[in-house]
Amino acid sequence: MAAAPEVRPLVHDELLNPYRHGASLIHRLPAPVKLLGAAACVLVSVLLPRTAWPAYAGMGAGLLLVALLSSVPLRYLGRRLLLAEPFAVGVALLALLQDHGLQVFLAMLAKSTLCLSCIILLNSTTRFTDLLQVFRRLRVPALLVVTLALMHRYLFVLVDETARLRRARRSRTFTTGRVFGWGLTATVAAQLFVRTSERAERVYAAMCARGWKL
Question: How far apart are CA 86 and CA 72, in angstroms?
């Protein structure tokens, strides 16, 4: 029962609420400028040739300079990058099955790491609500913007609901073991899915009752 309080702050602070308050030059930049810069960085990373290692190093140095100017702790940024890096490694591993697999793998890993670093810097120095405002100005479909806003809001609710389910299940469990733990996790996931579906229906009905229209 003592493990849940340790996991919850990590999920809340570093995954669901990555923004870090600050008064640095990067924080003061308008959100559209930062979003445009991040998009350009991702695009350049994707379009670079596989053998453009000096360019990869230069982009990495540039991102490091931006991180230093943002005054966001490098330890925090590095920890968030490590949390996302397994997904990049998993995708890049598929490249080992083709010709020149190692070279392609390293290039894909470098590109993915640069893109992840850029996105982490963006959402560490820009509020999510500011990004939504930029999407609205760019005429992004309203349904997509509303979906992103609701997803961001209810992720916190789902994390809290998961913590309550795990505490309730553990308080009624006196058996230990890895296999039993897997079954416990599967049970919690199934209950969370049911409760999420019911909550989504109630929220949608409440929104419609208050005249919500897209």
Answer: 23
Interior/surface letters 39-53, b for 16+ CB within 10 angstroms, e for the rest:
eebbeebeebebebe
- Name which of 20, 36, 15 is nearest 152 in CA terms: 15
Structure tokens at 114: 């640069």
Rounded Cα–Cα distance for residues 84 and 58 (Å)? 22
Give residue limits of the domains in the chain.
20-126, 142-209
- How confident is residue 121, by pLDDT bands cut at 50, 70 and 90? very high
pLDDT in tens, 127-175: 888 999 999 998 888 888 888 888 888 887 787 777 787 777 777 766 6
**Cβ 191 vs Cβ 165: under 8 Å:** yes
Buried b (16+ CB within 10 A) or exposed e, 176-210: eeeeeeeebeeebeeebeeeeeeeeeeeeeeeeee
pLDDT bucket at 178, cuts 50 / 70 / 90: low
Q: What is the DSSP string of 122-140?
A: HHHHS-HHHHHHHHHHTT-
Q: Per DSSP, which regions of the chain are E strands?
A: none
Q: With both helix axes pointing from N to C terminus, report the angle between 74-93 and 101-125 in degrees, rounded to the nearest 10.
A: 140
Within 13 Å and on the Cβ side, how many CA atoms surround 6? 3
Give yes or no for a contact between 124 and 14, defined as CB atoms under 8 angstroms apart: no
Type of residue found at 53: W
